[in-house]
Amino acid sequence: MYDLRVLKAAENDLARLDRTTTRRIVTRIQWLAEHLDETTPELLTGTLSGFFKLRAGDYRVVLQGLQNQESDCHPRIGHRREVYR
Description:
By secondary structure, this protein is of the alpha+beta class. It contains 2 helices and 6 strands; from the N terminus they run E-H-H-E-E-E-E-E.
């Protein structure tokens, strides 16, 4: 299991969302921390190369820093039409 630390910017992104969506996203992040060895996160390209995408319904969690067991997770959380800008 990985120890993903969510930074303040991501907490602010989550605070703007409704409770159900927030719960769904947090559940997906926890799932990723438990199953990262078994999955291959989707690598983004272009200006976001080096970042990974995690889907949670219509929302995306864009992650950076998944190299070792205790990674600082630098996520950006938002609706899929806005998060990649």
